Amino acid sequence: MSAPLRVAFFGSPAFGLPVLRRLHAEHEVVVVVAQPDAPAGRGMRVRVPPVAAEARLLGLPLDQPARVRRDRAFAERLSAVRPDVAITAAYGQILPESLLSIPEHGFLNAHASLLPELRGAAPIQWALILGRDETGITVMETEAGLDTGPIRHVLRTEVEPTETAPELSTRLSHLAARAISEALGLLAEGRLPRTPQDDAKATYAPLLTKEDGDVRWHDGARDVVNRWRGVLAWPGTRFRRDGRPIRVDRMEEAGADGRLGSAGSVLSVGDHGVVVACGRGAVRLSTVTPAGRPSMPAGDWARGAHLEEGELLA
After folding, report:
1. The CATH number of 210-304 is which of 1.10.730.10, 3.30.70.330, 3.40.1390.10, 3.10.25.10?
2. Taking the model in full, what pTM does it have?
3. Phi/psi at 8 (nearest 5 deg)?
4. Are 291 and 245 in contact (CB under 8 A)?
5. Read out DSSP for 176-209?
6. Tens digit of pLDDT per residue, the chain (314 long)?
7. DSSP secondary structure letters along 76-107
8. Helices H / strands E in the chain, number of each
9. Backbone phi, then psi, for 151, in 5-degree steps?
10. Cis link prior to 50 (omega < 30° from 0)?
11. Best CATH choice for the domain 6-201 from the list 3.40.50.300, 3.40.50.170, 1.20.1730.10, 3.40.50.10490
């Protein structure tokens, strides 16, 4: 078995936790780098990034620079701990070239897609929105471009047909830990391949916006449900009735008998929920959250709101 490597780990959200724990068990983590603690939410309470909290729990050296691109002192601190390799997993900042050259073996990033597909900040969400039936973790060598570096190691997995973004993110975080572990084992043995990406096949997964959560009733029912799966964590799926937003907490495809109305029209209301016509097929809204109210069964909301069959939802 190869000697443990000296590893610098860069990560911030919960996605990076399985990777950090695996690195801590198998190698020498010389520093953990996370986003700074910051106030958030209505109460502006200070929130600690999950990776930072875990580093403190494990007793690992922790650094939280505000802007690594302009922080010369941070670059000096990273150089001083002499990492053999740096690992990133959803860190949240763009790394300057001046940092990339510090570790002997550079930076390896656990990216949650099968590169060159879905380069960018939200590959898990867009894999679901686009209805992909396969995804995975690509361990890539970080360079100055947007997820353009050489592919070093890949693990694939099927996407479950009802899987949501939070569920897929959790599963891929554990796959990332395995992928990084395997990649570092190969690296230590001098057997980690380097395969250039085919830029001509690249697709992109930009950050979600609030508008990405708007229901597109004119899409097919499968596409409407796929979008709900992808945006569930944020910004969430919503439609409007009488100008007021209604968040959809749970939906699914509904059987259609061929007598569908216009896209967005209510087909039925009952204990089963609210069935709404789409451009092709229909969806069933099971649970919703009206503005200013708690989550509730869609049928209860519909009856209380006097929703009628044939009504058009925006």
Report:
1. 3.10.25.10
2. 0.95
3. -100, 130
4. yes
5. HHHHHHHHHHHHHTT----B---GGG--B-PPP-
6. 578 999 999 999 999 999 999 999 999 999 999 999 998 777 778 999 999 999 999 999 999 999 999 899 999 999 999 999 999 999 999 999 999 999 999 999 999 999 999 999 999 999 999 999 999 999 999 998 889 999 999 999 999 999 999 999 999 999 999 999 999 999 999 999 999 999 999 999 999 999 999 999 999 999 999 999 999 999 999 999 999 999 999 999 997 655 678 999 999 999 999 999 999 999 999 999 999 999 999 999 999 999 999 999 99
7. HHHHHT--SEEEEES--SPPPHHHHTSSTT-E
8. 8, 15
9. -80, 130
10. no
11. 3.40.50.170
d(CA 81, CA 30): 6
Q: How far apart are CA 194 and CA 178, in angstroms?
A: 18
Please check whether residue 60 is in contact with residue 48, taking contact to mean a CB–CB distance below 8 angstroms.
no
Joined tokens for residue 120: 């960018």
Structure tokens at 212: 């990405």
Q: Bridge partners of 66? A: none
Is-contact 11 22, C-beta < 8 A? no
Q: Where in the chain is the domain with CATH 3.40.50.170?
A: 6-201
What sign for the dihedral angle of Cα 156, 161, 166, 167? negative
DSSP annotation of 142 reads -
What are the start and end residues of each CATH 3.10.25.10 domain in the chain?
210-304
Write down the residue that tokens 């937003």 correspond to.
Answer: 245
In the structure encoding, which two tokens stand for residue 135, read together?
């995804």
DSSP 228: H
